[in-house]
Amino acid sequence: MNIRPELPDDVPTIRAINDAAFEQEEEGAIVDAIRDAGCDSVSLVAEEDGAVVGHILFSPAVVEGPERPVVGMGLAPMAVAPDRQRDGIGSRLVRAGLEMLRERGCPFVIVLGHPEYYPRFGFEPASRHGLTCQWEGVPDEAFLILIENEKVMESVRGTVRYRDEFDAAM
Which of 36, 93, 123, 160 could make an SS bond with 56 (beta carbons 3.0 to 4.6 A apart)? Predict the structure, then answer.
């Protein structure tokens, strides 16, 4: 299994994996829109025997700090081909992406996801740090954060905002 940055030739397969994994088109459309926006995102694929079997996207997320906005990343979406789910591919994608972001000095990563899955990577409820999700009705236990730079984040409280491309899916 090779985890690597997406390439232009991967785009149709990434879309197909997202559409199949989520059984809808919203997540794939978000990936395409963020890619088209040209923002500072991290898009990785899991490749096995020359075939892409999984994808993960990290895109900028912002929380207002006491003196200025603090930019971190939001993990979403992550998708694995349905016939390859539960093989550890998603975990490998998450770990590789988080390591890349650590190396870049990213202060935090948020995710709106399964509270049973993401704590294994160090995520915890964002509310423990005085942070809330921009969308109303999100369960506290599902809005999670991994703080990579305690010093940068120590006095940061408030609402965390994903990129506007996510609004269509919410």
Answer: 93
Rg over CA atoms, the chain: 15
**Above 90 in pLDDT, residue 9?**
yes
Signed CA dihedral, 63, 93, 140, 138: sign only: positive
Question: What's the predicted TM-score (pTM) here?
Answer: 0.95
List of domains in the chain: 2-169 (3.40.630.30)
Distance in angstroms (rounded) separating the CA atoms of residues 90 and 81 = 10
DSSP result, 37-101: HT-S-EEEEEEETTEEEEEEEEEEEEEE-SSSEEEEEEEEEEEE-GGGTTSSHHHHHHHHHHHHH
Helix (H), strand (E), coil (C) string for 76-93 = EEEEECHHHCCCCHHHHH
pLDDT for res 65: 66
Distance CA 102, CA 124 (A): 17
Q: How far apart, in whole angstroms, are the C-alpha atoms of residue 149 and residue 72?
A: 10
Both tokens of 27, joined, read 């997540």
Retrieve residue 60's tokens: 């900028």
